[in-house]
């Protein structure tokens, strides 16, 4: 049994604790912590977690905690991940790995010093059966080379305190990871555009935005980003290859015919859209930790997404593509 401590008892934290307690084989949540200790107490009572720590740092240092899951606020991911890696503990950190590329570099440097992979980043879309099939088709070469990707990330709601930059670091970060994974390529340049703004969205941050990327190999990517006030939670992805196109399937939904209309319901909650991917992802992580061979998204992947996110946020308002420069890839991640 892998003894896990979870830091962050908000929405995704509770979901992951439930998964680890009742669904994932070989896992046991032995402790939890939250910025608000009462939230941790409540969550512990809900899922029979035996120990609550007052702080994330205490949980990381606790001797019974063999591996740490970080589901706290984005701006705390870096410090918690680094602290756990320094102790040689395995970490599963929700996306983003950190808020900036330079913070990711520090994590990478520490992991390289430890000499083995200790970090998996929560880029769960790689485990979604739809995206996995798209990758399989691209890699088979059956449709020739991929030329471009058209993607949409449409969401209905963001919590208080959301800002324009988080549209990239918190929301589009999924596309930043999945597109480079699908194409097996790194980014060369990036630009974000503030386009015509939605009259429904007057919360003080840009919505929508368009993310444009070019890869080393010359593939082009465009991502339409509606961080809130969209008609539903809708994730679209089309890869255009030389001989055909591949589309991400929509989640299964019943088709209703009534009153001379044919309709299907759309989801509004992101946690439900990729529920299967989250389940597979955590099961894969626990299994890999037990075997001592991590194969899921690494610190390098967390870094690559943050390098692109940094460039995108710097490009806002400049109307120019900014170059993306990465450090040399350490052997650990080859
Ligand atoms: C949210 O924070 C997430 O992590 C979801 O995966 C993303 O799709 C959503 O748009 C974000 O608000």
UniProtKB/TrEMBL annotation:
Subunit note: Homotetramer.
Residue intervals of the Gfo/Idh/MocA-like oxidoreductase C-terminal domain: 135-320
Catalytic EC class: oxidoreductase
Gene3D superfamilies: Dihydrodipicolinate Reductase, domain 2 (3.30.360.10), NAD(P)-binding Rossmann-like Domain (3.40.50.720)
Protein purpose: Involved in the oxidation of myo-inositol (MI) and D-chiro-inositol (DCI) to 2-keto-myo-inositol (2KMI or 2-inosose) and 1-keto-D-chiro-inositol (1KDCI), respectively.
Pfam families xref list: GFO_IDH_MocA (PF01408), GFO_IDH_MocA_C (PF02894)
Domain of life according to the entry: Bacteria
Pathway(s) per entry: Polyol metabolism; myo-inositol degradation into acetyl-CoA; acetyl-CoA from myo-inositol: step 1/7
Family in the record: Belongs to the Gfo/Idh/MocA family.
EC number: 1.1.1.18, 1.1.1.369
Protein name, as recorded: Inositol 2-dehydrogenase/D-chiro-inositol 3-dehydrogenase
Catalyzed chemical reaction(s): 1D-chiro-inositol + NAD(+) = scyllo-inosine + NADH + H(+); myo-inositol + NAD(+) = scyllo-inosose + NADH + H(+)
Gfo/Idh/MocA-like oxidoreductase N-terminal domain: residues covered: 2-123
UniProtKB keywords: NAD, Oxidoreductase
Organism taxonomic ancestry: Bacteria, Bacillati, Bacillota, Clostridia, Lachnospirales
UniProt keyword NAD, yes or no: yes
Gene: iolG
Organism from which the protein derives: Ohessyouella blattaphilus
